[in-house]
Amino acid sequence: MDGYGFVSPEDVESAIRKDTILITIMHANNEVGTIEPIEEIGEIARRRRVLFHTDAAQSCGKIEVDVNKLNVDLLTVAGHKIYAPKGVGTLYIREGTSIDSFVHGVGQEMGRRAGTENVPYLVGLGTACEIAREALPASGERLRVLRDKLHASVLEGVGRERVRLNGHPENRLPNTLNISLGGIVGEQFLSEIPEIAASTGSACHSGSFEPSEVLLQMGLSKEEALGALRLSLGRWTNNEEIETASKLIVEHYVKATQVRQAAS
């Protein structure tokens, strides 16, 4: 992984061994939003005859996701990420790909997962996918504009020298802004602004005061990683909310800086 959070296709290929049976890379990083070179990695996997899986939980509904363009054999989708009920998801399996049963027993889902299907949730997921597909062209650009406005407002209010953008400046999800603010601990900082629902890293590890391993692997110092804020926009995020969030972040940062300076 480089300083932008990119996984190198060359590094993936060099890691393949004779006994490698699966390559799995997330489509977009869940902390900084960097979109990974899945298509290129998929070409390597096919050439080396290794099954290739990508986790598209973060990308579905935010950017185009086409299993044929991506050259994947397997692709996962998390329902709640595209406004389906929480607790439902799907696994795309390319025709001809053989997998073991996930839950053994009777023959539901073509023998791959025993147990009665949750039909209402499946309908909800299908409907959410249809809505996301229809909304995608316009929503992606709208979120990108709002995200960049949030970033610019924080830069102006806090000072460019105190703000670090984490992730690629262009090749990232339109709804994701990960920044490090100098001199703070992100988790503590956010806990003091209850009006903003955000995290410092992966939601799987929220509440931790440990620095993000992803950010450390990208080359950030421990202090920079601890000062990270992971700000995500949703389908209904509006301009007023962006203005409110940036104002709260700036005001609280200025106040925290003044308190820190007075104590030193």
Q: How large, in whole angstroms, is the Cα Rg?
A: 20 Å
Major β-sheet profile: 4 strands, mixed
- Beta-strand percent range: 5-15%
Report the structural category: alpha/beta
Number of strands: 7
User: Strands across the major sheet, in which order?
Assistant: 1-2-3-4
> Cα distance, first to last residue?
38 Å
How would you describe the oligomerization state of the chains in this entry?
A: single chain
SSE string: HEHEHEEHEEHHHEH
The coarse overall form would be globular
Low-confidence region ranges = none
Number of helices: 8
Return the average pLDDT rounded to an integer: 93
Helix content: 25-40%
Written overview of the protein:
The chain has about 260 residues and is α/β, with parallel strands linked by helices. About 40% of the residues lie in helices and about 15% in strands. The chain contains 8 helices and 7 strands. The protein has helices spanning about 10-15, 40-50, 65-70, 120-160, 185-190, 215, 220-225, 240-264, and strands at about 20-25, 50-55, 75-80, 90-95, 165, 175-180, 230. A 4-stranded mixed β-sheet has the order 1-2-3-4, with helices on one face. The chain has a 3-stranded antiparallel β-sheet with strand order 5-6-7. β1, α2 and β2 form a beta-alpha-beta unit. The longest helix has about 40 residues, at about 120-160. The two termini are about 40 Å apart. The relative contact order is 0.13.
